[in-house]
Amino acid sequence: MENYKSVTTPMSVIEKLSKTLGDSLSVAEGSKYRSIVGALQYLTLTRPDIAFSVNKVCQFLHSPTSSHWTAVKRILRYLKHTSTVGLSIRRSGSTLVSAFSDVDWAGCADDRRSTGGFAVFFGSNLISWSSKKQVTVSRSNTKSKYKSLANATAEII
């Protein structure tokens, strides 16, 4: 991976991951895929910028394909490019708690479920974040956004 070109985003905006996209990985490659994705999950504890991308590649742990492996390698290339990025907590005069949420309505090509996420700030400091696939299919963009907003609100409370 050292010779690979770094990238500025952790995931391609053009390609949508799917169960059927790409050739199945061998048993050894699948094991390596799961191991690296597990390490990436751990890394999301301090790198909220990769939470959505890691959430997406986690959905294919059961039977990863070559396109999923390519997506994991892209996340690694992004991490190489942003190796100096991390969380920092700074003194802030504000005690305002604010949250932002968003969702990719029907973003999963396989089951049309949405992935929602949120970020919670205390003053100017990011204190909590999440990216999670919604349990049910939303029939409208508004409904999926309300679900994501409810998750953010529950985190604040």
Automatic annotation (TrEMBL):
- Show the taxonomic lineage: Eukaryota, Viridiplantae, Streptophyta, Embryophyta, Tracheophyta
The protein's name is Uncharacterized protein
Query: PANTHER family from the xrefs?
Result: GAG-POL-RELATED RETROTRANSPOSON, RLK (RECEPTOR-LIKE PROTEIN KINASE) 8, PUTATIVE-RELATED
State the source organism's domain of life: Eukaryota
Recorded hits in SUPFAM superfamilies, A to Z, give: DNA/RNA polymerases
